[in-house]
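On clarity, I found the account of how folds are encoded harder to follow than it need be. An entry of this sort, consisting of the sequence and the corresponding backbone structure tokens, reads as follows:
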Amino acid sequence: MKTYNSILIILMTLSLYSQSIDLINPQEEIGIDSWNIVNDNVMGGISNSDLYITKENNLMFYGNVSLKNNGGFASSRLRFNKGKLKDVKAFQLRVKGDGKIYKFRLRENYRSSNYSTNFETKSGTWTNIKILVSDLNPMFMGYYSRNAKKLEIDKISSLGFQISDKQQGEFKLEIMHVKALY
């Protein structure tokens, strides 16, 4: 009976995340439009970043982070319709990084706070990263925000990537896909 219960629990866990939608998948031309770049130049910094589609048909977020002029971050944001993430429980990322730490961020329209979590990359290695919605923390101007309202996933209208935390220099984050898991 214990074996049967264990198998049942495993199957139920797998079925929790069996439904997914692609949020970013350049191979299928999903999530390649409606991007904005927001770098520290909004506050006087001189960091820069951009996005392009690689010859392998992946999304590349790249640039240079500078700490000059009190700078130190580069970010990209993909906009979509509010409600797209209704009932999402987690996100699955397939990325190839440069050994640096990046942030996965969600945001509502016209809100100054966001919800984010860090993820590590391995230089030149494709990595699958699973991020639970419950792991996303409310942030304001790069700091944990005690005053931010609780994340309401159905009100989110953008996702993005950021590099910060005094990681100066060139960076590259290649994204094969981002899936929303139900």
